What does this fold into?
Amino acid sequence: MANFFKATNKKQTLGQQININIERLDHNGCGVGQYQNKPVFVEGTLLHESVLAKIFEKKGKYSRAKLIEVTDQSEHRVDAECAHFKVCGGCDLQHLNFDQHLTFKQEKVAQLYTRHNINAQLPWQPSIESSPWHYRRKARIGVQYNKAGQATIGFRQRATNQLTAIKHCPVLVAPLKDIFSQLKAVIQQLTIHSAIGHVEVVVTEQTTLIVRQLKAMNKADKQRWHDAAKKYNWQVVIDNGDNVTPLFEITELQYYLPNHIEIKFEPKDFIQVNHDVNVKMIEQAMQWLALKPTDKVLDLFCGLGNFTLPLAQQVHSVVGVEGLQVMVDKAKDNALTNKINNCSFYQADLNADWSSALWNKAGFDKVLLDPARAGAYQALEQLLKLSIPSILYISCDPSSLARDSELILAQGYKMEKISIMEMFPQTKHIETMVLFSR
Ligand SMILES: C[S@@+](CC[C@H](N)C(=O)[O-])C[C@H]1O[C@@H](n2cnc3c(N)ncnc32)[C@H](O)[C@@H]1O
It folds into this structure.
């Protein structure tokens, strides 16, 4: 086999133009075909398309080629909405008709499950949908300077660390429509050069900017931020790497969930980026868990209490566990604000040994876990010892989800329901909910 690859390898040369049929999309949404028995990855192509592409990277087992022309195009190909598509690394799927995105995502999850030997028919439920555009309420906007001190303001280009200048980003919520030109106007005027690393933006009832300031600000630059804040109706917070300090008094940040639940947060705290999908996700989680007034529920990776507080309104009690003490404090505060007193919050590194933690007791009826992209393997190894009858897993990374599901199923659980949630439309990112029971 090795000799075979060697032999065929010689026939592919850098810069060579090849005609290729796209036979599958990888989990990043990149088209893959075979050329001389070797996979060739061609970005911007779709399943069943024939394309002309130019090889720009040759590795032992695969090559990468740049799309030159689609010679036979998919019925699902559409023109990308955004002028920056293909260059900007933010969106991957704009050339695929939106009605196909969920199908693509569902197939990717199914393929990853197959890789983990989970071959049975998956109990798919209807996906949670999103509006295709203007859904993102939080983003990090990069700032880079050239030698002349001119700033590029935008997002990272595909597969590089360089920024591409952005004019408009159609996935950001409406109040951020002109954010790039507005930021450019302020940043170019600052007297201290190369002072800004990036700017995070969060939209709730206000638009808040968290400005990563790399050099101490002088009075004149402070005034420029003040003036811009007034003009554009921003709240500005300065992050100097050690402290996050409001430039002037700001209104507390919060978002609302059904039943008048108010979730307060600090500008840099994790919040789910797509508000509408977050609300639908919480509703579905509560429905799937078939909550009873007598239930005792555990909420792992609970953050600010985004799931904990709505759950607590319907059950006997909820224990929320989170790694960051600041989030735990905020979650406790959120419970108080909402006058919800049947939940308690604890700090713990869930990837470490928590066998002696106070909250680690038998008797939970249901557990919800919502880990970061790395998943929850170490947490699950311990959690599974509690034999909790229902496990609801919210995942933002299907690879770690498939790996963790294998562990859960090996302990005698059955997968009851699974669905995709369109948390990040136009991108390859996949959010999934799975319910297991035993
Ligand atoms: C995807 S967020 C979910 C937060 C919350 N459930 C929500 O819906 O807003 C993951 C959370 O896990 C926390 N986390 C990450 N690693 C952790 C660890 N090793 N132990 C405990 N918590 C952790 C993060 O601080 C973050 O709040």
In short: The longest strand covers residues 63-72. The chain is about 25% helix and 30% strand. The chain has three domains: 2-72, 107-131+274-437, 138-246. Residues 87 and 169 are 13 Å apart (CA to CA).
